[in-house]
Design a protein that fits this description.
Blueprint: H1 29-41, H2 47-56, H3 58-67, H4 76-93, H5 102-106, H6 108-120, H7 122-141, H8 146-171, H9 179-193, H10 200-228
Helix pairs in contact: 2-3, 3-9, 4-7, 4-8, 6-10, 7-8, 7-10, 8-9, 9-10
């Protein structure tokens, strides 16, 4: 038989040249739905596999991904995009009332414009925040190249976004200023970079890199408000 993907002739269940299945089933509504659902819900591979491993073994999933053992791992960028998308869907459903105080009025123009911009483009703002977090972790830990830090922090931000999502449902506190999000970032970063069971240096570095990341976010938000006001 010939492979439908690369036209290589073989007699195996999988093409030895490109890995495509020999027997490709016909596309149906059921097959599309079941394949998409399994990609998200399978605990042994896919989205929920990432979630499980980032809770139980963050260092393991990151090392496997960097070393090229990626068969069961959901792409970190896709992982981050899905978590943000789910957060935005929940955010659109839950209405959070805001109040204006005299203190708010003093910085109303800058704060309003910054908040409006971040709210409008939050998906892109939060995805791009991986860039700033990766600058922080690269400067502090120095291990891995910058592209690898981008991949690592896509895992970190995706998982932290899920923590923020759960917190948001309960407390109505948004991601950007939710302390639980940054605690999650510190905890995951520490477990990725620690060299031993209790690594004080790695914990302080995780704390420092997250603080540097938060400072960068604050500066960017303020600059956006100043430019747009």
């Amino acid at each position: 038989m010939r492979c439908v993907n690369c036209n290589y002739e073989h007699h195996s269940n999988f093409c030895p040249n490109c890995g495509e299945k020999a027997a490709v089933p016909q596309i149906t509504f059921t097959s599309i739905f079941s394949h998409g659902l399994s990609t998200i819900t399978n605990m042994n591979r896919g989205f929920l596999f990432n979630v499980k491993q980032l809770v139980l073994n963050p260092n393991g999933i990151v090392n496997d991904f960097i070393k090229g053992k990626r068969k069961n791992i959901f792409n970190p960028i896709s992982f981050l995009i899905i978590t943000i998308t789910v957060y935005l869907i929940i955010d659109s459903i839950i209405v959070v009332k805001t109040t204006t105080t005299k203190t708010n009025l003093r910085v109303y123009s800058v704060g309003y414009e910054a908040g409006r911009f971040v709210k409008l483009y939050f998906k892109y703002f939060w995805i791009l925040s991986v860039v700033w977090l990766s600058i922080s972790t690269k400067l502090v830990f120095r291990k891995y190249n910058y592209a690898e830090h981008l991949a690592i922090n896509s895992f970190v931000m995706g998982q932290a976004t899920l923590v923020g999502l759960i917190s948001f449902v309960i407390t109505k506190q948004g991601l950007l200023f939710n302390p639980l999000v940054y605690i999650a970032i510190i905890w995951i970063t520490y477990n990725i970079f620690k060299q031993k069971k209790k690594d004080v240096e790695a914990f302080l570095q995780s704390l420092g890199s997250t603080a540097l990341f938060f400072i960068q976010l604050l500066i960017i938000v303020v600059l956006i408000g100043i430019i747009r006001s």
